[in-house]
Design a protein that fits this description.
two-stranded antiparallel ribbon, 3% strand, mainly alpha, 58% helix, 460 residues
C-alpha cells in the first residue's frame, strides 16, 4: 500500500487536527523527528531533579517531626511536610497538562508516540513518597533525549536513572564479595530484579538466548548502581562485586569495580542480534497491529544491526515498508491516545485546557483512570498491555463514551458542527454509519461524543 497522510497522522502520530497539516511523506516525518524538539520547548517540564529536591525536603521534615521537643514544633514540621507533598502533586498535574498539550498541538506526532512507546518499554514508577510523582521527570531525563539516537544510550540512561533503580530495588543490591559485605561480615543480598528486566523486557526478550545463570551474572555486574537523595545517581564501588565478572561469554571490568563495566555490558546487550529482533517486533506490534508483517520486522531488525543500534534507520525501515500503510483498523488506542487525539481533533488550545490541578484531574486524569490507564502508574515492569481486549471492556468503553459526551463541551462550550468534525477526526475514510450518526445527533455535544466513541475513532 502507498503512503497515506491521514493514516500517517493517525497510525504513527497523535491524530488528525484541523490546524496542523498531516505529514506528506515518510521522509518529512523523519526529518521532523531528527530536528529540534519543538513541543518540549513550547511546553517544558522538569526532570527528576525537581522531585529529588522535594524528596530531600520531605525526609528532612519527617526527621524534624521525629526529633521535635514540643508539640508546636512537631505540628509545624508536619504541616510543612504536608504542604510539600500537596505542592508536588499540583506540579505533577501541571506536568501532565504539558504532556497533553505537546500531543494536541505538535506537528511532530511521531516523536510523541515514540516517547510514550519507549517510556513504556523502560517502565519505571515511584513506589512511595515524592518519587511516586517522578515518572514525568524520568521520561524527560532518560527517554525523550534518546528517541532519535542510539538505543544503547537510552538503555544506559534508563538503567542508571534513580527512578528505575528505586523501582526495581537495585539500590538494595550488594555484591556477595563486595567491600561492604567483607567489612560488615554478613550477606546483604544480591537483587536480580533489574538484571532480569534488562534481559527479559528491555533487550533480548522473554524468549531470548539467556538463562538464570546469565541473570545472576548480570546482577553482579550491575552492583554498585545506587541513588542517594542528596546527590541523585551514584556508583557505589564498595557495594559492587569485585571483578572481572563473567557475563554471556565475556569478562567485564577489572578487580576494582567501576561504572565502565556496567556500561560495557549494556553496550553489548544493545548490540546483540536478539535485541534487534525483539525491538523491531515490539515496535511493529505497537504501531501496526498484533500480527505485523514478518518482512517488516526483518527489515527493521536488519537496519538496527547494520547501523549500530541507531534508531532512526529502524523507524525509516518501518515507515518505508508497504505493510505500514495497509488498510484496515489498527490497534485500539490506549486512553492517553484516545483522549489526546480527541482533543487534537477538536483543535483544543492551551486556553481551553484547565490550568488548575483539580480541573485537570477531573476532566482528564480521573476519566483516564476509569478507562484503565492511570497516568504515570503502569501496572508492572512490562508496562501497559498492547492487547485490544485489555482496553475494550463494558466499563472502560462506558468511560470513553461518557468522557466524549461531556468533557469537550465543558472545555470549549462552542463545539464544532458534528457533520464537519467527523471529517476532521476520521479523515477521508469515514464509515457511512458514523457520518449518519453525526448528521442525526440532536445536539453538538451528542454528535461529538458519538464520533469519538465510534469504533473508527477508537483505533489507530
Amino acid at each position: 500500500m502507498p503512503f497515506d497522510p491521514a493514516r500517517a497522522a493517525i497510525r504513527f502520530g497523535c491524530g488528525l487536527s484541523p490546524s496542523v497539516a498531516a505529514p506528506e511523506t515518510p521522509d518529512a516525518m523523519l526529518a521532523l523527528l531528527a530536528g529540534p524538539d519543538k513541543a518540549a520547548a513550547a511546553f517544558p517540564t522538569p526532570g527528576f531533579e525537581a522531585v529529588r529536591k522535594v524528596h530531600v525536603a520531605v525526609v528532612d521534615a519527617r526527621r524534624r517531626i521525629r526529633d521535635a521537643e514540643t508539640q508546636e514544633a512537631r505540628d509545624a514540621a508536619a504541616q510543612e511536610r504536608a504542604a510539600l507533598v500537596r505542592d508536588l502533586r499540583s506540579e505533577a498535574a501541571g506536568w501532565f497538562r504539558q504532556t497533553v498539550l505537546r500531543r494536541v498541538t505538535t506537528e511532530d506526532g511521531l516523536r510523541e508516540r515514540l516517547v510514550a512507546f519507549w517510556a513504556d518499554h523502560f517502565t519505571a514508577r515511584g513506589k512511595g513518597g515524592p518519587p511516586r510523582f517522578g515518572q514525568a521527570g524520568y521520561v524527560e531525563d532518560a527517554i525523550r533525549p534518546h528517541v532519535a539516537g542510539r538505543f544503547a544510550d537510552m538503555l544506559k540512561a534508563a538503567a542508571t536513572h534513580p527512578l528505575m533503580l528505586l523501582y526495581l530495588d537495585q539500590t538494595r543490591s550488594v555484591g556477595p564479595n563486595s567491600a561492604v559485605v567483607t567489612t560488615r561480615g554478613r550477606e546483604l543480598g544480591l537483587n536480580e530484579n533489574l538484571a532480569r528486566e534488562m534481559l527479559e523486557l528491555h533487550t533480548l526478550g522473554v524468549d531470548g538466548p539467556y538463562g538464570q545463570v546469565d541473570v545472576r551474572q548480570l546482577a553482579q555486574v550491575l552492583t554498585g548502581l545506587g541513588y542517594r537523595r542528596e546527590k541523585g545517581f551514584v556508583f557505589r564501588a564498595r557495594y559492587a562485586e569485585p571483578g572481572p565478572l563473567a557475563f554471556m561469554g565475556r569478562d567485564y571490568g577489572s578487580e576494582e569495580p567501576s561504572l565502565n563495566r556496567v556500561m560495557d555490558a549494556l553496550e553489548d546487550l544493545a548490540a546483540h542480534p536478539a535485541t534487534a529482533t525483539h525491538l523491531a517486533r515490539k515496535l511493529a506490534v505497537h504501531f501496526c497491529g498484533d500480527t505485523p508483517d514478518a518482512g517488516m520486522i526483518a527489515a527493521m531488525a536488519e537496519a538496527y544491526r547494520a547501523q549500530n543500534g541507531q534508531l532512526m534507520p529502524v523507524y525509516a525501515a518501518m515507515l518505508e515498508h508497504p505493510a505500514a500503510w495497509s488498510e484496515g483498523a489498527g490497534n485500539v488506542k490506549q486512553p492517553m491516545d484516545f483522549v489526546t487525539s480527541g482533543l487534537r481533533a477538536l483543535d483544543i488550545t492551551p486556553r481551553h485546557l484547565p490550568a488548575k490541578p483539580r480541573a485537570i484531574m477531573r476532566h482528564i486524569m480521573n476519566p483516564m483512570t476509569l478507562m484503565g490507564q492511570t497516568w504515570g502508574a503502569p501496572p508492572g515492569p512490562d508496562g501497559w498491555p498492547e492487547a485490544d481486549a485489555a482496553w475494550i471492556t463494558p466499563q472502560r468503553m462506558a468511560a470513553r463514551l461518557q468522557w466524549g459526551m461531556s468533557v469537550p463541551f465543558r472545555m470549549m462550550r462552542l463545539l464544532p458542527d458534528p457533520r464537519e468534525f467527523v471529517e476532521t477526526a476520521l479523515g477521508p475514510e469515514v464509515p457511512e454509519a458514523v457520518r449518519f450518526a453525526a448528521r442525526a445527533a440532536e445536539t453538538r455535544a451528542e454528535g461529538i461524543g458519538l464520533i469519538l466513541a465510534s469504533p473508527a475513532f477508537q483505533r489507530f
